């Protein structure tokens, strides 16, 4: 069935039927939630072979999902103009994909880096504007950071980076920052560390996590490496070109239109009074999972570059040691989501496979959402085969395997 037609049916139907979205080869099982049978369907719902995602998504962020995931739900469960929201937006995959599809957007993440990563990709400058600004910038290779960064950067690269940082902070502080500055800041933030010549640093961890200076020294010793010179402006230009390579003028217009009414927040997911009651048609999100990822420590270098005090973020981002703590925190988030979602609207809540499958968070999440008033409409497990060349989490393991997303789908009763 074409997407738009199925969308109308799902929006109108009182009985939302997840099975109707599944391919015929799907495996179906059932579990009991709140005394009712809920269907769990396992299949390859979306694949990387399908319509490719926009190049604009290709910035790294810890534990981000692929754009095909929010796209699947946006296309089936919303119409153009509907409001799509992610309370834990990370790099902003959900709002960006929703904006590309002509939906209205709202996005939140307690980490202020998220807005810095998303906004510039909604108000995108032309590659020529980026080039002109970079040409004009005078970067001083002898500038130094207030602490030792020599384990990551060649001295001249550090100097260029430090003066770029000073320029960006000065533009902001004097009210002269514009969309081109914000774009350059977003791209530079993404190029700070990584494991190829496309990043400013010497070889280090994958780009979505910065290691400590101490660990980096160990990595350098082990690999017998010293930071090579990397040309900051040219790396920013190349990455800009690659991000913008498939962007058409109508994409730019759609993204700008979405930005005009966008609600972008940097706050706790369970307290978002800025979002009106019953305004959201669809939430697509993936929460912080127990204590798997420490988002503030992983981002220390990105926060420094953007002049954000680590203390502003550290300890506030949810890192839950126990399932009980995590359940309580998610219960409060679901209460808030119940307030903002409109009757008949949906929540697609993605949980990963944590602790080597000892904990199936989908089974834990289903009753939490129901306690807040939602009805669990089903659980969708997308199993995607990847091949030898796939590079998951930046690790090339030369093996085939599966990449699994578990998504619990809820509906707010009409
Ligand atoms: C799994 S990641 C989301 C990734 C996102 N789906 C993407 O594609 O980039 C979870 C996010 O939750 C944020 N976070 C952690 N605790 C939070 C809280 N209490 N309120 C809002 N955001 C929080 C983290 O900063 C992190 O970006």
Topology:
Blueprint: H1 3-12, E1 27-33, E2 36-43, H2 68-77, E3 83-86, H3 93-100, E4 104-108, H4 113-118, H5 127-136, H6 155-173, H7 179-190, H8 213-223, H9 232-243, H10 249-261, E5 263-265, E6 280-285, H11 295-298, H12 300-305, H13 310-313, H14 323-340, E7 341-351, H15 361-371, E8 375-386, E9 401-411
The protein binds S-adenosylmethionine (SAM).
Residues 61, 63-65, 88-91, 93, 109-111, 268-269, 286, 288, 295, 317-318 line the site of S-adenosylmethionine.
Summarize the structure.
With 414 residues, this protein is an alpha/beta fold.
Structure write-up:
Helix content is about 35%, strand content about 15%. The protein is α/β, with parallel strands linked by helices and about 425 residues long. A 9-stranded mixed beta sheet has the order 1-2-8-9-7-6-3-4-5, with helices on both faces. Strand 3 (about 85), helix 3 and strand 4 (about 105-110) form a beta-alpha-beta unit. Helix 5 packs antiparallel against helix 9 (about 230-245), helix 7 (about 180-190) packs across helix 9 (about 230-245) and helix 14 crosses helix 15 (about 360-370). It has 2 domains: about 5-110 and about 245-295 and about 310-410, Rossmann fold; about 125-240, no CATH class. S-adenosylmethionine binds near residues 64, 89, 90, 317 and 318.
Indicate the overall shape. globular
Please give the number of β-strands.
Answer: 9
CATH class of the largest domain: Alpha Beta
What characterizes the major β-sheet? 9 strands, mixed
What helical percentage do the residues reach?
25-40%
Mean pLDDT: 88
CATH topology grouping of the largest domain? Rossmann fold
- Assembly state (oligomeric): single chain
First-to-last CA distance: 25 Å
Bound molecules: S-adenosylmethionine
Count of helices? 15
* Series of secondary-structure elements, N-terminal to C-terminal: HEEHEHEHHHHHHHEEHHHHEHEE
């Amino acid at each position: 069935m074409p997407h738009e037609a199925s969308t109308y049916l799902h929006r109108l139907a009182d009985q939302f039927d997840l099975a109707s979205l599944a391919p015929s080869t799907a495996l179906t099982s059932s579990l009991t939630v709140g005394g009712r049978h809920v269907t769990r369907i396992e299949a390859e719902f979306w694949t990387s072979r399908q319509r490719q995602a926009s190049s604009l998504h290709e910035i790294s962020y810890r534990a981000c999902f692929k754009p095909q995931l929010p796209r699947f739900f946006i296309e089936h469960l919303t119409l153009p103009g509907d409001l799509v929201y992610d309370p834990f937006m990370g790099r902003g995959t959900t709002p960006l994909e929703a904006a590309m599809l002509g939906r209205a957007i709202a996005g939140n993440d307690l980490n202020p880096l998220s807005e810095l990563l998303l906004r510039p990709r909604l108000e995108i400058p032309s590659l020529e504007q980026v080039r002109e600004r970079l040409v004009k910038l005078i970067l001083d290779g002898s500038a130094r950071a207030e602490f030792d960064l020599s384990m990551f950067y060649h001295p001249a690269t550090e100097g260029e980076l430090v003066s770029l940082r000073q320029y960006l902070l000065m533009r902001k502080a004097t009210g002269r920052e514009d969309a081109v500055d914000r774009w350059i800041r977003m791209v530079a933030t993404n190029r700070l560390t990584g494991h190829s010549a496309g990043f400013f640093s010497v070889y280090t961890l994958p780009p979505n996590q910065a290691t400590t200076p101490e660990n980096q020294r160990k990595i350098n010793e082990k690999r017998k490496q010293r930071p090579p010179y990397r040309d900051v402006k040219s790396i920013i230009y190349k990455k800009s070109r690659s991000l913008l390579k498939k962007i058409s003028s109508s994409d730019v217009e759609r993204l700008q239109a979405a930005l005009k009414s966008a609600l972008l927040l940097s706050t706790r997911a369970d307290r978002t009074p800025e979002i009106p009651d019953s305004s959201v048609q669809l939430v697509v999100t993936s929460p912080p999972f127990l204590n798997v990822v420490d988002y503030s420590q992983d981002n220390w270098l990105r926060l420094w570059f953007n002049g954000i005090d680590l203390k502003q973020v550290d300890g506030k981002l949810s890192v839950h040691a126990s399932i009980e703590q995590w359940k309580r925190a998610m219960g409060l988030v679901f209460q808030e989501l119940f307030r903002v979602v409109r009757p008949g609207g949906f929540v697609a809540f993605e949980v990963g496979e944590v602790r080597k499958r000892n904990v199936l968070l989908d089974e834990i999440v289903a009753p939490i959402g129901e306690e807040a008033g939602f009805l669990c409409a089903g659980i969708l497990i997308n199993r995607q085969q990847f091949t030898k060349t796939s590079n998951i989490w930046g690790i090339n393991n030369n093996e085939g395997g599966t990449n699994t997303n578990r998504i619990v789908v809820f509906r707010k009763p009409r």
